[in-house]
């Protein structure tokens, strides 16, 4: 089949490459010209897709990157994998709408359009379908097929990849569902049919809401445990020995990535805007997790004052990690970057080290790509804050040479000069 994937980011590029490897002729539509040129040259900016893997599908002519909408002509299946960010703390579906308008011109009878972008229930039916029908002059469910299949990409996860992660599929009609499932059966090992579009859309935002709420719970627990003088990390290890009725979540500097800081807001905002009801647990979790970077800064401020009788202003601080999770360069919505930014705004001299990122942003000192903790003199800093525990960091050396460490991830052994969040 001729497959078009609109958006070649963390979600779209892995899908496009996998579909090409499965034997389809794939057009990767990327309106960002610089990105498109990089892909055409065999250079991947998505770490889950190695350059050699990208070049293999390019060389076989199974994959073609383009920023020209005319290349979408004649598609059998088109998948929309564009961002759904927040703008002014409200859902922003402009990229979905733009993709729908671009795609509508090229829909032919019998074609299938699938939305993968995370959004609130009702988006596929109420937002995307009208755009596709208006632009094509065709009727969804009769002349062409429409579906929704939520992305479940976990950047940097070597165990659960696109092909072996169960894929939820949904359709506007039973015939649509059959077509959507038929496509994903060729690129994934397990497909899970949903009874309707809205159920699939809600399942996606609830998956991330579940994590968001539980992370907020342990983040608040860590604050209370610190006030009580109790080791929250050991407490969680003890609780996790229960073989039923408990799932272990861990505290940290906040939540980041393409899902947790955003997806629950889509659900709570939609419920409030459409029905005037408040999803109280989501809003409370959002308040806790959004304030966690400030809590980390306060802990560091208190430690500097208590131990060295100095303020954050003018202090030399080494921040380890800028990505939102270890083993990845993904810094979208990263709480680590927020912590570094807040410290700098308070007058600290902040050096950020991340072996996966060339620039940390936010005005912090830029560190060349590939820099590790071995490239800095740890003893030159007044304090170290471990934000993202990349495997490249030598924690034994850090413990031996640092004057003080605030470990926000609980990966170091507590000592007189090492505090865990």
Can you put this structure into words, describing what you see?
By secondary structure, this protein is an alpha/beta fold. It has helices at residues 12-21, 33-40, 51-59, 94-104, 123-136, 174-184, 197-228, 232-239, 263-275, 280-308, 335-345, 395-401, and strands spanning 2-6, 25-29, 63-66, 77-80, 86-87, 90-91, 112-115, 145-148, 167-171, 191-193, 316-320, 349-353, 383-386, 405-407, 418-420. The strands form three sheets. Strands 3-2-1-4-7-8-9-10 form an eight-stranded mixed sheet, with helices on both faces. A five-stranded parallel sheet has the order 12-11-13-14-15, covered by helices on one side. It is globular and about 70 Å long. α4 (94-104) packs parallel to α5. The termini are far apart.
List the helices and strands and how they pair.
Blueprint: E1 2-6, H1 12-21, E2 25-29, H2 33-40, H3 51-59, E3 63-66, E4 77-80, E5 86-87, E6 90-91, H4 94-104, E7 112-115, H5 123-136, E8 145-148, E9 167-171, H6 174-184, E10 191-193, H7 197-228, H8 232-239, H9 263-275, H10 280-308, E11 316-320, H11 335-345, E12 349-353, E13 383-386, H12 395-401, E14 405-407, E15 418-420
Parallel strand pairs: 1-2, 1-4, 2-3, 4-7, 7-8, 9-10, 11-12, 11-13, 13-14, 14-15
Antiparallel strand pairs: 5-6, 8-9
Helix pairs in contact: 4-5, 7-9, 7-10, 10-11
């Amino acid at each position: 089949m001729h497959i078009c994937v609109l958006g070649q980011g963390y979600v779209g590029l892995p899908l496009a490459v996998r579909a090409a490897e499965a034997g389809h002729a794939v057009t990767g539509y990327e309106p960002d010209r610089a990105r498109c040129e990089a892909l055409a040259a065999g250079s991947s900016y998505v770490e889950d897709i190695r350059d050699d893997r990208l070049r293999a599908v390019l060389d076989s002519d199974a994959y073609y990157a383009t920023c020209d909408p005319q290349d979408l002509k004649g598609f059998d299946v088109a998948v929309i994998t564009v961002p759904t960010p927040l703008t002014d703390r409200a859902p922003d579906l402009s990229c979905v709408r733009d993709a729908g308008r671009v795609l509508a011109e090229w829909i032919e009878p019998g074609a299938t359009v699938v939305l993968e972008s995370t959004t609130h229930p009702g988006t596929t039916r109420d937002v995307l379908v009208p755009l596709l029908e208006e632009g094509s002059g065709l009727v969804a469910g009769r002349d062409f097929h429409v579906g929704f299949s939520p992305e479940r990409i976990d950047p940097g996860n070597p165990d659960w990849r696109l092909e072996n992660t169960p894929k939820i599929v949904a359709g506007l009609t039973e015939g649509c569902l059959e077509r959507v499932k038929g496509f994903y059966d060729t690129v994934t090992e397990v497909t899970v049919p949903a009874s309707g579009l809205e159920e699939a859309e809600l399942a996606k935002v609830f998956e991330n809401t579940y994590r968001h709420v539980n992370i907020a719970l342990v983040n608040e627990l860590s604050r209370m445990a610190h006030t009580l003088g109790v080791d929250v990390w050991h407490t969680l290890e003890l609780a996790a020995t229960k073989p039923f009725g408990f799932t272990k979540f861990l505290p940290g500097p906040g939540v980041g990535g393409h899902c947790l800081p955003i997806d629950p807001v889509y659900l709570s905002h939609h419920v409030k805007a459409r029905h005037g009801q408040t999803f109280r647990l989501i809003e409370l979790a959002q308040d806790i997790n959004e304030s966690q970077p400030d809590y980390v800064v306060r802990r560091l401020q208190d430690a500097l004052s208590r131990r060295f009788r100095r303020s954050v202003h003018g202090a030399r601080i080494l921040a380890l990690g800028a990505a939102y999770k270890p083993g990845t360069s993904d810094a979208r919505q990263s709480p680590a970057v927020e912590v570094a930014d807040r410290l700098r705004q308070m007058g600290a001299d902040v050096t950020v080290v991340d072996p996966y990122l060339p620039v940390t942003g936010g005005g912090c000192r830029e560190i060349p790509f590939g820099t590790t903790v071995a490239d800095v003199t740890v003893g030159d800093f007044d304090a170290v804050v471990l934000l993202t525990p990349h495997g490249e960091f030598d924690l034994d050396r850090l413990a031996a040479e640092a004057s003080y460490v605030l470990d926000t991830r609980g990966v170091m052994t507590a000592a007189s000069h090492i505090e865990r969040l």
